[in-house]
Write a structure and sequence with these properties.
The chain has 181 residues and is α+β, with helices and mostly antiparallel strands. It has one domain: Trna Endonuclease, Chain: A, domain 1 (3-Layer(aba) Sandwich), CATH 3.40.1350.10. It contains five helices and 14 strands. The strands form five sheets. The protein has a six-stranded mixed β-sheet. It has a two-stranded antiparallel ribbon with strand order 1-2. Strand 13 and strand 14 form a beta hairpin. Helix 3 crosses helix 4. InterPro entries: Restrct_endonuc-II-like, tRNA_endonuc-like_dom_sf.
Length: 181
C-alpha cells in the first residue's frame, strides 16, 4: 500500500494545495475553510480525535463565478472513493454531498482538481461528471482512463518549477466557464 510521502513536514497533498494556492492570480478571491482536527481525553491512555468536515478545500471567485473545489493528488493510477458513509476512500461521501449542494446554485461551479502524479496530468472535473462516472463503473476507485472515458475534464496547464508546480488557474477558470455551467 502506498504511504503518503512527507517533504519537510508537509504531505504531498498539502504541497499540492499550497502550489495551487500560490498559482492564483491577485484578481481572483481565494478562501480556504477551516478543517482542523480536534480531540479530547476520554481516559488515562486514549484521546478521541475527530475532524470537522469542511465542505471543500477551497473557494475561488473571479467576479462572476464561485468555484468550490476539492483537491486530490495520487501517486498511483487510481483514486478510491466512498459510495457509502462506512466505505473507505480518498474521496469521502460527505465531499460528494457538499459539492453537489453547491452545484445547485446559479454561477457556482463545484468539483475536483485531480492530480495524477504518475502521468503528471492535473484535471478539473465537475461534481456531476464525477457522480455520473461513478454510476458507470463497478468498482470503488477510478483511474485517469475512467475519468477521460466517462466525463469531460479540463486538463489544467501547469509548469514544473525547480521543485514545485505553477498552475494556470486563470486559464482553467476561463475554459471551465466557456464549457458551460
Amino acid at each position: 500500500m502506498y504511504k503518503e510521502v512527507k517533504i519537510i513536514g508537509k504531505s504531498i497533498g498539502k504541497i499540492f494545495e499550497n502550489n495551487f494556492k500560490a498559482s492564483i492570480p491577485d484578481n481572483i478571491w481565494y478562501y480556504r475553510p477551516p478543517d482542523s482536527a480536534q480531540g479530547f481525553d476520554i481516559g488515562a491512555s486514549s484521546k478521541l480525535r475527530f475532524s470537522q468536515h469542511s465542505p471543500c478545500d477551497c473557494m475561488l471567485f473571479n467576479g462572476t463565478h464561485l468555484f468550490c473545489l476539492e483537491l486530490k493528488t495520487v501517486f498511483g493510477t487510481s483514486i478510491s472513493f466512498e459510495r457509502e458513509k462506512d466505505d473507505k476512500g480518498v474521496i469521502h461521501k460527505y465531499q460528494f454531498d457538499s459539492l453537489s449542494k453547491f452545484a445547485k446554485y446559479k454561477n457556482v461551479i463545484s468539483g475536483f482538481l485531480l492530480d495524477f502524479r504518475k502521468s503528471d496530468h492535473t484535471y478539473f472535473t465537475k461534481i456531476d461528471d464525477v457522480l455520473n462516472m461513478i454510476k458507470c463503473i463497478d468498482k470503488k476507485s477510478f483511474n485517469e482512463g475512467d475519468l477521460l472515458k466517462h466525463s469531460s475534464p479540463t486538463l489544467i496547464e501547469k509548469k514544473k518549477l525547480k521543485v514545485n508546480y505553477k498552475y494556470n488557474v486563470a486559464l482553467m477558470i476561463e475554459q471551465v466557464i466557456k464549457k458551460g455551467d
